[in-house]
Amino acid sequence: xxxxxxxxxxxxxxxSPKQGDKIIxxxxxxxxxxxxxxxxSSFLNPELPIPPFIEQLTHINDDMVKDAPLFKEIAPKVLQxxxxxxxxxxxxxxxxxxxxxxxxxxxxxxxxxxxIDTVELARILLPTIDGYKLNQLADCLSxxxxxxHQADSDAEVTAQILLMLIEKMKQLPLTTLxxxxxxxxxxxxxxGELIEDVIEEKQQLIEENSDFVFLHGLAIRKMENEKxxxxxxxxxxxxxxxQKHEHFNSILTNFEDRKEQWQMMDLVDEAFSSHEHALIxxxxxxxxxxxxxxxxxxxxxxxxxxxxxxxxTISLQQQLIEKDLTLASKLLSFPLSAVVLKGRExxxxxxxxxxxxxxxxxxxxxxxxxxxxxxxxxxxxxxDIDEINLPSGGKxxxxxxxxxxxxxxxxxxxxxxxxxxxxxxARAKRAHIIxxxxxxxxxDVLSNQSLLPHYxxxxxxxxxxxxxxxxxxxxxxxxxxxxxxxxxxxxxLQTKGLLIDVHKVxxxxxxxxxLERINDMIGQLHAECxxxxxxxxxxxxxxxxxxxxxxxxxxxxxxxxxxQGSHWSAILELASRxxxxxxDFLHMIRSEQxxxxxxxxxxxxxxxxxxxxxxxxxxxxxxxDHRLYKLLFESEENEVMWFEIEPKGAANATFLYSQPxxxxxxxxxxxxxxxxxxILTSATLTVHHxxxxxxxxxxxxxxxxxxxxxQSPFSYEKQAKVFIPSDFPAINSVSVEExxxxxxxxILDVASITNGKMLVLFTSYDMLKQxxxxxxxxxxxxxxxxxxxxxxxxxxNRLIKDFTQFDKAIxxxxxxxxxxxxxxxxKLSALMIVRLPFSPPEQPFVAAKVERLKNNGQNxxxxxSLPQAIIKFKQGFGRLIRSRKDRGVxxxxxxxxxxxxxxxxxxxxLPQVDIKEKAFHETLDDLQTWWKDISIDx
Length: 938
Known about the structure:
By secondary structure, this protein is α/β, with parallel strands linked by helices. Among the domains are: 4-172 and 187-207, 2-Layer Sandwich (Nucleotidyltransferase, domain 5), CATH 3.30.420; 476-660, no CATH class; 716-937, 3-Layer(aba) Sandwich (Rossmann fold), CATH 3.40.50. Helix content is 48%, strand content 14%. It contains 36 helices and 25 strands. The strands form 5 sheets. A 7-stranded parallel sheet has the order 10-11-9-12-17-8-18, with helices on both faces. The protein has a 7-stranded parallel sheet with strand order 21-22-20-23-24-19-25, sandwiched between helices. Strand 2 (23-32) and strand 3 form a beta hairpin. Helix 13 (288-303) packs across helix 14 and helix 19 (438-447) packs across helix 20. It is globular. The relative contact order is 0.07. The mean pLDDT is 90. InterPro entries: ATP-dep_Helicase_C, DEAD/DEAH_box_helicase_dom, DinG, DinG/Rad3-like, DnaQ, Helic_SF1/SF2_ATP-bd_DinG/Rad3, Helicase_ATP-bd, Helicase_C-like.
């Protein structure tokens, strides 16, 4: 590609030139004919102090720039570099705006170079990577990045990324490039010019496309025909067990002998052999995935029966498929087939995508999503959404192109041969191990939908979530946004949507009158549903409680037969009107559908597809009608119902829930009684060294499951220290303001020793906000980067990424940070537990659970609140030490852990670790000494 690119990177004193921020470092890398031919960089004197936050991020300080040139001194050089070149940058709008502003300030003309944004280019050409920050791309592409956030290093890396992305573009099929070019006209940078050049080059070559199949101008990665291997196992489990050290040593170079792993492996084999259920608590680091996979795989192959492995998180599914199952196969020395199987909505429909690809789009996220999918289809063998990193607005587009609700067209040629969902199901029927998620597993069991192939043996990992997911799956929920989304997809005759597409088809046949009536009904449904959810919203504002752990949400537990007053009557009256309107709408839809289907042969295939999508979306309102009735007009003895609202959000941001208070009986009858072996495992299943709590919650009391609890092999006595400040006030003895102020000081005192790298776990969002505010004042020199869930952002993944990016960061989190996050190594050195994680008693589900237990003559605190809090406490503690190399300190500020009779159970739940209770200033002295010692060891 005979083009000149100048890759620019700037370091600045802040984010806005309009607010006086200045450039402190300029760097440029020049590329010609695909080679780096020149480099230029310079520090710049901004004539103002560099903020501590920027100094920490860039490691550029005032001394480094005080003798550097001013921007006006290098401006001629910059302009000379930019002549007849593309302006390339990672997030080009930022660098270009700063540079333009500086040039204007010194009397120079605007730059008119075509901009290329490597962020935008990477998002399209690398659709499956986790993130598009410069360091993430460098890691993904194996590019050495010596000094992140210094302009010369960043520009060098960006230049290498650009060259690699151009090479990637050249590998794409010509038909994909042409599709991308048509979309590129609506992108933010001039990527289309690059694509056009590559197209010209490829058109001059004879392209071999043996890796792809082509379908109506769409290139798709060719699927290999999978051969089913039926190999005999060369040994029994007992024989393998006798030689297990040899097997592991031959495959694993740094093999660590863990007796806990062998204990678990033996019990899993026993459960499969004797057709019993089992509960296994396996501490962090025991190697539990291999411990259950090896006996499960041997049983599956030997007995020719499939074993299902169910997880709660996508990350564990990926780890199982990409790492653990491959390793298990090597250790066992025979081929092991495994497949991930998810619900239809996870898989792309090639037919639907092709149809929408032709639609004109003005929405940037939809255009970007189309471009990413075009590239992804040349790579994917699964068609699974979880592979692709969609933009924030891409989810709405995905809802229109996934395999959910297939039509008659989808089960015909050629589409059935290109169905990723059907391929996954076919692979699942042949696989030894089927990996799935708790939700799909429970949908399969509880609704008899036959979503999974028949199986009798299942391993449930992350089992501490199983009861919660079962309760959600057996419950019902509804919110305004989901209804609004359906109505928006249908659209109207005045706006974009399915209705106008149907109208265009029907206008050929002069049959549009019914569509005008449907259009009127859609308008009425919009208005009536909006009014209904607004009315419920105001009802909750009057009556609701604010749960401590839910960020900004109010909740109100209601009883359909006990609510009274004119406001409630108005809600029911409006809900009845919505239901009558829905039934009239559905009656009309059925009538129109019957007429169209009677003459389906007279319509083109494209027109049939439009009808199918339209009627499919319309029929989704049957479910809305059912849910409305269930949530507002029905009442079950074992169910709890509640509303939630976002008081600072839209006036119709309202959520309705109904869930069973206990799922024990349903799980016992519908799941455990029908399976030969169910193994439930997690790092946190026991309370007071007993499985009684989880046995009762899951309905396992009649099954007498095998039980095993193995501790983590980590040396917590050497790796961790726990401090309980004895002079910290009881949380209810002072105001929230006073407690938060003292907590803020204490956090920063500990952070000054550990250099930040701290996670602070709250149970109250209000206290988190106040503590964050006080810390912001105390941290006026910005020594630490402060991150607060719901304050800086609500996005958990974004918070974790930002936390790991900075050396001296403090992250304040609530409910979702107590578990399921894995911050590696030295990035996390201190954990602070503000309060013991009891669920707020005013939360609707908790209140209903407590009532039920009391009515049954049980002690709700001992039988429910305490066990639940201990399990969550163990999960929170588990965030700190994730490997043998980790070191860290835990502070527990809630004095109930030592001042109450039940507090000892929290401490007893921890592994063998050094626990010290003393005055806070004394803990700092101890910590200072210990921290020096472990720093020397490292």
